[in-house]
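Record VIT1/CCC1 family predicted Fe2+/Mn2+ transporter, 237 aa.
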Amino acid sequence: MTFFDRRNPHQESHSADRAGWLRAAVLGANDGLVSIASLMVGIAASGASTSAVVTGGLAGLSAGAMSMAAGEYVSVSSQVDVETADRAKEQRELAENPEAELAELTAIYRARGVPQDLARQVALALHEADPLQAHLRDELGQSEHTAAKPLQAALASAASFLMGGLVPFLGLLAGTATARLWLIVAVTLLGLAGAGVLAARAAGTGVLRPTLRVVLGGGLAMAITAAVGQIADVSGV
Ligand SMILES: [Zn+2]
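=>
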């Protein structure tokens, strides 16, 4: 349950930010679809009763949502800690050695291709306006709208996992045990295809290949878990 991109989830520009958010939601939903469907298919393939399948699915749903929320909360919180520490360090440096900080900012603009004189002018002007913001933004890449929000990230993760994880339950509408198993597989593959199309749209890429990838991957995951379920049944575990 680690489909969220934890390397760098909060350092994208404005429009990319929204795409990143949608992408994270789609991946969370994918995660819910595949893990809950696999769980239910695995339990069903072991020959267990429908109530065992439902119980397993519900337990997986809450476990997965909690795990996603907790994992995301911890990960984003540590990002906030890093940002807070960086901000305090910058504040201290600006208070203790403003000249060195000015030179540092000038060097940053120089490195981006701004001529020395102009770089110095820009750095001076920004130091007069709001030196801390200038350093946080141009030195550390922090800004208001990229600030990490742990609770929001945790809730979004859990919600997208739940949205995906509820889809396999539609399979329970079928009449017989075998039909239920196949309907779970079918609605899950459909859900994955839908999520794949959304993800491709968000990324602005072609639709067919990423969708096929996600559908085949999900199908494989369910097949493997079903096989494990059957082995468990045969061995009488
Ligand atoms: Zn600095």
